[in-house]
Design goal:
Blueprint: H1 4-15, H2 33-44, H3 61-76, H4 83-96, E1 114-121, E2 130-136, E3 143-149, E4 154-161, E5 164-172, E6 176-182, E7 191-196, E8 208-217, E9 220-230, E10 233-239, E11 248-256, E12 259-269, E13 272-280, E14 288-290, E15 299-304, E16 310-318, E17 321-329, E18 337-343, E19 352-357, E20 372-380, E21 383-391, E22 395-401, E23 410-415, E24 428-433, E25 439-445, E26 451-457, E27 466-471, H5 474-481, H6 493-496, E28 504-512, H7 513-517
Antiparallel strand pairs: 1-28, 2-3, 3-4, 4-5, 6-7, 7-8, 8-9, 10-11, 11-12, 12-13, 14-15, 15-16, 16-17, 18-19, 19-20, 20-21, 22-23, 23-24, 24-25, 26-27, 27-28
Length: 518
């Protein structure tokens, strides 16, 4: 981290200190520039990389510095940074930053290579909260998607039939976050593993659950609780982690504050599971099974957000034992990680990581010019090399797929936090891969806004991948939590003035524009 620019302005910042803090106590001596920089290094670099003042606008730094000091005190059980040092560090950041953040340029897609036609599916909602859409094979229909609907607190099956699209409620679940079709008891029936947050926004409340919808007969499911009394659960995956022939369950508990963990549930038979905590940490967005070191054993990978901003690997040593490895560290604590996927993006037969950053519920909630999409190339020996794909406000998710059918993996990305008053800002874009992992951006849509989940499927069997996407109106969630009661209810005053909106959309891939012009 370089401090040259910050130091140039620090003397002025200290001189104007009263603009950002209370009057200086008589006993507190004015510090030199070097002394304040040392404080920044000591306190702001103790648990994460030292953030640059350029990361936030001037007005935001006092509240952010105080929030981080409060968090440090909570973690340590005592005051960590004195009021005097908080004042000095605040002066450093507020006095060295700009009034506003630079804006990403608007991208004009002059000659897009593909055309798409959009239409909406299913019921509309005043506050769409589609958390996850997952392409599955459950009943054998041509197109089946499990839909985690946080607005209705339901797990739905979206199916394309000869009569059209149908939505069927499978279970009532409070804020379902991820699903997976499995056969947990190896009886030939397809069951559904469900992760549930249980609560918005991040919190220390033990509201999370892992559920099993056990299929008793075709289309009939019985709900069982596999894990409860834990923080908000973001992900659950079924995988044989101890090589004993049955399915265990890996779980990421995002939680919030001091609550959160990566854990696994050992299948001990008879429908029973034994919990093993692998890492106590808040902010885990996922837990993805993958053999990242190519030793034949399934490892676990997780993207950790909040102030941690890192990718960790839990390397499988065999017999249910794992070794923690930090695979990548974000450039700063405001990076705002939102999601990751494991994928062999460059076709060299190993596991790479596709990652988005664009958090909309951070300490400072404006879209950031450093939001975007990137991938981490697996170069062997648990080493991963960062590659930028593109900057994109509020990037919420990215999914690989060969949209243009040229044999390589393109990237589709969505945004949930953007300057929506600007009609040129996009809620979905795609990056065209030239085959060498050089990517060219193309626009898709600017409405509906705030999309957090995307799936790909050739819906109409024309050998072109279409896009299925879910809308999550984080802006309305923010408005509701700004109300005095801070309750997420469908009858909130905020929603009384809202019109019905799309929850699920499809972008039909019409193919090459050159072909359409012929």
């Amino acid at each position: 981290m370089k401090y040259v620019a910050a130091i140039v302005f620090l003397s002025l910042a200290l001189y104007a200190l009263t603009s950002y803090s209370q009057a200086k106590p008589e006993s507190a001596k004015q510090k030199t520039v070097e002394q304040v920089v040392d404080l920044v290094k000591q306190y702001c670099g103790s648990c994460h990389k030292i953030p640059s003042p350029a990361l936030l606008p001037k007005k935001s730094w006092p509240a952010v510095i105080q929030a981080m000091a409060d968090l440090a005190a909570k973690r340590m059980g005592q005051e960590y940074i004195s009021a005097e040092y908080i004042r000095d560090i605040t002066a450093f950041y507020a006095g060295s930053s700009s009034e506003t953040l630079p804006r990403l340029p608007v991208y004009d897609d002059v000659n897009p290579p593909l055309s798409f036609r959009g239409f909406e599916l299913g019921h509309e909602s005043k506050m769409p909260l589609i958390i996850n859409i997952k392409l599955v094979t459950l009943n054998g229909d041509d197109a089946e998607f499990l839909v985690c609907d946080g607005g209705r607190n339901e797990l739905l099956l979206l199916t394309k039939t000869k009569k059209g699209w149908q939505e069927t409620t499978l279970a009532k679940v409070t804020l379902p976050s991820h699903t997976e079709v499995i056969d947990i008891d190896l009886d030939g029936d397809k069951d559904i593993l469900v992760a549930a947050l249980g609560l918005l926004p991040p919190s220390e409340a033990l509201a999370g659950k892992v559920l099993l919808l056990r299929q008793s007969e075709t289309g009939k499911f019985e709900k069982e609780v596999l894990l409860e009394n834990v923080g908000r659960v973001s992900d659950a995956r079924a995988v044989d982690l101890d090589s004993d022939g049955d399915l265990d369950i890996a779980v990421s508990v995002f939680g919030g504050g001091l609550v959160g963990e990566l854990t696994w549930l050992e299948n001990v038979g008879g429908g029973k599971f034994s919990k093993h905590t692998l890492l106590n940490i808040s902010g885990a967005l996922n837990i993805s099974p993958a053999d990242i070191n190519a030793d034949g054993k399934t490892d676990l990978v997780s993207l950790i957000s909040q102030e941690h901003e890192m990718i960790v690997g839990l390397i499988n040593s065999g017999k249910g034992q794992f070794k923690l490895e930090r695979l990548s560290k974000g450039p700063h604590p405001m990076f705002g990680s939102t999601g990751m996927r494991t994928v062999d993006l460059d076709g060299d037969n190993d596991i790479d990581f596709l990652v988005t950053n664009g958090d909309a519920l951070d300490l400072q909630q404006d879209p950031k010019p450093y939001h975007g999409v990137q991938w981490f190339e697996n170069t062997g020996n648990l080493k991963f090399v960062y590659h930028n794909i593109g900057r994109f406000y509020g990037a919420a998710t990215a999914i690989p797929g060969d949209l243009d059918a040229d044999g390589d993996l393109d990237i589709i990305a969505s945004s949930w936090n953007n300057y929506w008053d600007d009609p040129k800002r996009q809620s979905m874009i795609w990056f065209e891969n030239d085959g060498e992992q050089n990517f060219t951006r193309h626009n898709l849509i600017n409405k509906p806004q705030s999309i957090v989940t995307v799936e790909l499927k050739d819906i109409n069997e024309d050998k072109r991948l279409d896009i299925v996407a879910g809308v999550f109106r984080i802006d309305l969630v923010k408005k509701i939590f700004e109300q005095p009661d801070k309750k997420l209810t469908q009858d909130a005053d905020v929603l009384a003035r809202e019109e019905l909106k799309s929850r699920i959309i499809i972008l039909e891939n019409l193919g090459s524009n050159n072909d359409l012009k012929k």
